[in-house]
Amino acid sequence: ELRHRASPWQRNLGYPLAMLGLLALTGISVLIVCFHVLELLLDDAAMPRGIQDASLGQVSFSIFGSFGAALQVILIFYLMVSSVVGFYSSPLFTRLLPERQDTPLTKIIGNCVSLLVLSSALPVFSRTLGITRFDLLGDFGRFNWLGNFYIIFLYNMGFAGLTTLCLVKRVSWAGQAELLRTLGED
């Protein structure tokens, strides 16, 4: 219903640009994770341990300077939004979605706890994937398991593989549906 009420500019320009932006952000994050996997295989310094003796402003956290730092911020924000959307889209937690003007207090508390857990896991998630090396005030790099090569390697490979699989499935499904629609078949 919202798609039919949208203006032609939204339908013909806004939605395709938004989809291309989401595809680009997903592709960039998968590329960064793939480069991080190669870096893990070649250099032990790529492990997401804490940074010792590096104060803020003295060390660049991106090899591309300001552009790379801005890209890291955008990717971390994208990962945050996509993890929240994925969390509320899972069949187990769809009942936790708040309802306008009719949300009980227990559901509000459950939403607060869920969002707190997701936001607390985001710095470790982004460091483990190699999206950033910034240590976000919490010194998250001191977890013992962040020094285990096999856990980090499998985590990165799992993220890259599953994200690529979902991306290919979503894009190919949309392409197949559009092809069938243009051919006039249901």
Summarize it.
The protein has 186 residues and is mainly alpha-helical.
How does this structure look, described?
This protein is mainly alpha-helical and 186 residues long. The protein folds into two domains: 14-42 and 65-134, no CATH class; 148-185. Helices cover 66% and strands 0% of the residues. The longest helix has 35 residues, at 8-42. It starts with a helix and ends with a helix.
Q: Multimeric state of these chains?
A: single chain
- What is the ordering of alpha helices and beta strands? HHHHH
Give a short account of the largest sheet.
none
Identify low-pLDDT runs: none
What is the mean predicted local confidence, pLDDT? 80
Strand content: under 5%
Q: What gap, in angstroms, lies between the N and C termini?
A: 21 Å
Shape: globular
Given helix and strand content, the structural type is mainly alpha
Overall number of structural domains: 2
Q: How many β-strand stretches?
A: 0
Protein name: LMBRL protein
Membrane topology: Multi-pass membrane protein
Transmembrane segments: 12-38, 58-88, 108-125, 145-168
GO biological process, one term: receptor-mediated endocytosis
